[in-house]
Write a structure and sequence with these properties.
Layout: H1 5-23, H2 28-44, H3 48-56, H4 59-73, H5 81-90, H6 93-103, H7 109-142, H8 149-152, H9 164-183, H10 190-209, H11 213-231, H12 235-255, H13 257-267, H14 279-298, H15 308-318, H16 332-361, H17 365-377, H18 387-404
Helix pairs in contact: 1-2, 1-7, 2-6, 4-6, 4-16, 6-18, 7-9, 9-10, 9-11, 9-17, 10-12, 11-12, 11-17, 12-13, 14-15, 14-16, 16-17, 17-18
């Protein structure tokens, strides 16, 4: 068989995807060069006629890339073009991954599983690295004379160059991947049954420890829903999952006071002066009130790409809370509505619910869990305003959408 560059490019394409998911949980300066190499390999492989034909058969490609194109259209009425251009640069992955993955040769089932396993191993390795760094910091600080709980909870993810929210987002999805790989494995060994509960419990515990609240809520809700739907009348599976969650959370809260404090902050919305709302609650109330005020004024076409943060800052100043400057809306749906108006929000929802409908119809459960997980976490976070959220969504949405769904169902 004659070896040509397109054939080499296909193998290199798969290798780069593996390298990408391995580097995904770590610093963006490590991750970004891989994305550049992936795009460069796509260009150098040529064969654009075949690529265009594949794109034509993937109508989801146009839906996925429309989110990026919306960012370009939003520049037409923005008053802050430099910030808009920066936003465009940040979201470039929303174009690159759908373009590259939709037009490339479809990966085999074994290749898909290998990439998923690589992501699982990488994320587990990242958590171990976080623990080692936390121990080292604590030793440097006081030689373990006392425990600096922040090192072992909310600050653990800082070692990886991301917030606890995004690490929780990753690990919760890893939980679903591990369960999926186990359930779809043909020849299960005894060691698999022993190792699975340990690994899933570790992932739950880590999400609780770093106090990634919305990721934990999504993990809990989707786990319970999945166990009910997949196992139907087998309430043993459902009861077991509930029991595991309760035990892990109870043990961790009892032994790590910092977790209890973080949970109390969420529910402390009291307006009584003697019982002031927590700083966390004040932040959430401020972002919600300012977002709603701006949305009411700009609900039709939005404020344009790049104007959201500046307008929110002005609102915080007017309310006498300048300490909250640079806080975003903390809700992806609010952000799309504020930036692009009602049409932009509807397009964003279509890009989520159309593939969700196809995934449910074709029983692609992992893709269903990914989309639902992203939608739940988007209720309290602007996941597409941060590089770690953008590349996570852009890659896995395209990777699962174009490799799991049947193309003839996309018509």
């Amino acid at each position: 068989m004659k070896i040509t560059y397109p054939l080499i490019s296909q193998k290199l394409h798969f290798l780069l995807l593996v390298v990408f998911v391995v580097t995904l949980p770590f610093q963006m300066k490590v991750n970004n060069p891989v994305i550049v190499c992936l795009a460069a390999n796509w260009l150098l492989s040529l064969d654009f006629k075949a690529k265009i034909n594949r794109l034509k058969r993937n109508t989801l490609f146009f839906l996925f890339t429309s989110i990026f194109l919306l960012q370009i259209v939003g520049l037409l009425w923005t008053s802050n073009v430099p910030e808009g251009m920066f936003s465009l640069q940040k979201t470039l992955s929303l174009l690159i991954f759908p373009l590259v993955l939709a037009s490339s040769v479809k990966l085999s089932a074994s290749q898909v599983r290998l990439i998923l396993k690589a992501f699982v191993i990488s994320c587990i390795s990242a958590t171990i690295y976080c623990i080692v760094v936390a121990l080292y910091k604590n030793y440097q600080l006081c030689k373990f004379a006392w425990i600096h709980w922040n090192y072992y909870t909310i600050e653990m993810s800082y070692t990886l160059g991301m917030s606890h929210v995004y690490l929780g987002l990753y690990l919760s999805f890893v939980f679903f991947i591990v369960a999926y790989l186990f359930l779809t494995k043909e020849n299960k060994r005894v060691i698999d049954y022993i190792f699975l509960p340990f690994l899933l419990s570790y992932l739950i515990a880590f999400v609780v420890i770093i106090t990634s609240k919305i990721a934990f809520i999504s993990l809990l809700l989707l786990s319970l829903a999945s166990s009910l739907l997949l196992f139907k009348k087998r309430l043993i599976a459902f009861s077991t999952i509930v029991f595991i969650f309760i035990i892990i959370v109870t043990v961790l809260q009892k032994n790590i006071p910092h977790i209890t404090e973080r949970v109390k902050e969420v529910f402390n919305f009291s307006s009584d002066k003697a019982n002031k709302p927590s700083f966390y609650s004040q932040q959430r109330m401020a972002t919600f009130e300012c977002s709603m005020e701006l949305i009411k004024k700009n609900w039709l076409i939005g404020v344009g790409t790049g104007d959201c943060n500046e307008l929110l800052n002005d609102c915080y100043d007017q309310k006498g809370i300048p300490e909250f400057k640079w806080l975003d809306s903390h809700n992806e749906y609010f952000d799309f509505l504020l930036t692009f108006g009602i049409g932009g929000l509807l397009l964003f929802l279509a890009s989520l619910f159309m593939p969700l409908y196809l995934a449910i119809k074709q029983k692609q459960f992992l893709y269903v869990l990914f989309l639902c997980h992203f939608m739940v976490c988007s209720l309290t976070e602007n996941l597409l305003d941060n590089n770690k959220g953008i590349v996570f969504y852009a890659f896995f949405n395209s990777f699962l959408g174009f490799n799991a769904l049947k193309k003839n169902e996309d018509k």
